[in-house]
Specification:
The chain contains 4 helices and 19 strands. The protein has about 300 residues and is mainly beta. Strands 11, 12, 13, 14, 15, 16, 17, 18 and 19 form a 9-stranded mixed beta sheet that branches.
Length: about 300
């Protein structure tokens, strides 16, 4: 087992390395392309740059560091099989995802804390670092672990060190794939019920369809809030949807249908309870259905 060159100490350090990366990434050649569009491996607010190839104490950085809040959901980039790796002092709690495409993904520095503090009292086990069993078959977008700061990331910014190895070979920069990846609106086990609250502005409205530019989402029952999304989502509007408009007195009143919505108007939409699926998590066109729409 080689030493994983992973350590990150925050956004400022990462930004300082940008100028050193461009000349080193070309040294890593892919042996076969992974899927064109993977699932972004962290659900929640994330900061990252193309730090692949940046200097590290043990050599060049072999992945991208996705800085996110401790215990943010780490999800499967594609369908495949997981394997725990818990014997690397530098990587800490680590997981391999053997994707069905032949690509292997490394998830490094997963959580080892029992609290939101850096207590280091947890172990690399299911429920603390991982959410699935060792050897489990998982679906794309399924949660497989928790973001943390284990290994040589201890005491630094919690983040997921994410590596991508086409055909199980050498590491290539994940950055181009992360830029194209599907970012999930929420994380939930397939088939379990969910509801989303979408806040944004109206793009267009028809009798059975609302297209909105979504700035904020909140998922239930997880409570996960995503902000500054700037994402266009098309929602189906069934006849049973309650549509309300903000009146001059500051109270909402029922209106006939959603076609009264004006482009650019503020809108808050609650989806109907539905079983979680990858299409719903991605917010695919027309998959989400509205239960209540408030305009103005």
């Amino acid at each position: 087992m080689r030493r994983h060159r992973t350590t990150a100490r925050g956004v400022l350090f990462l930004a300082a390395t940008i100028g050193l990366v461009a000349g080193t990434a070309a040294a890593y050649a892919a042996k076969g392309p992974p899927p064109e569009h993977i699932i972004f491996p962290v659900v929640g607010k994330v900061q990252y740059i193309d730090d692949f190839g940046a200097p590290r104490p043990g050599g060049r950085h072999q992945g991208n560091d996705l800085i996110s809040a401790k215990r943010s959901p780490a999800v499967a980039a594609e369908a495949g099989k997981v394997k725990y790796w818990t014997t690397s002092g530098s990587a800490g709690c680590m997981l391999y995802l053997y994707g069905d495409s032949g690509t292997t993904y490394y998830y490094i520095h997963l959580n080892n804390d029992l609290t939101l503090r850096n207590d280091n009292r947890g172990k690399c086990v299911k429920g603390i670092a991982y959410t699935v069993s060792n050897g489990a078959k998982v679906q794309a977008g399924q949660q497989i672990g928790y973001v943390g700061d284990s290994g040589d990331a201890n005491g630094g910014s919690s983040h997921l060190h994410f590596e991508l190895h086409p055909n199980g070979g050498g590491a290539v920069s994940p950055y181009p794939y992360l830029q194209k990846a599907y970012k999930l609106l929420f994380s939930a086990k397939g088939g379990t019920p969910f509801v989303l609250t979408l806040t944004g502005t109206v793009v267009s409205a028809a009798i059975d369809r609302l297209i909105m530019n979504v700035s904020t989402t909140q998922a239930w029952p997880s409570g996960l809030v995503l902000t500054k999304l700037n994402r266009t989502i098309a929602v189906t509007v069934p006849e049973t949807t309650v549509v309300q408009s903000l009146g001059p007195t500051g109270t909402f009143r029922a209106v006939t249908n959603v076609t009264l919505a004006q482009k650019g108007e503020k809108v808050v939409l609650w989806t109907q309870p539905a079983p979680a699926s990858l299409k719903a998590q991605r917010g695919d066109d027309g998959v989400l259905s509205s239960a209540l729409i408030q305009l103005g």
